[in-house]
Amino acid sequence: MGTLDPALREEFGDAVAERFAAPAHAGAPADAEGWVSAEAGRLGSGAVVAFWLRGDATRVDEARFEAFADPAVIAAAEWACERAEGSAPGELAGIEGRRIAEILALPVARAGGALLVEDALRATLCRLAPA
Predict the structure, then answer these.
(1) Which of 72, 59, 76 is nearest to 25 (CA)?
(2) Considering the entire predicted model, what is its pTM?
(3) What residues have CB less than 8 Å from 105, skipping those under 6 apart?
């Protein structure tokens, strides 16, 4: 995992620290062809999350994200990508920020970022082409 500040693990917990330290799905795709994207948030308010999904209305083949936010939001976006890949979009429609916050054991003061992830993921799912 490299050198991760122990204070980060202490403040956010293991689930967040591990995803923040090595997010496998971070970064926009190199070639946007075949991908759909959407975002939520505003830099002026301190956080923005964008998702890219490749697939159709029956299956998400690949998922990527970019997040300009705190470690909780980055970890939540990584978790959402982990769940998205290989899933049917309908299965993902039920992902709620509240549930993400519970699964990752986000500190209450940071749980709002999971709602931003929910909004961005849902907006991106709406753009997948019908099968």
Answers:
(1) 76
(2) 0.90
(3) 13, 15, 16
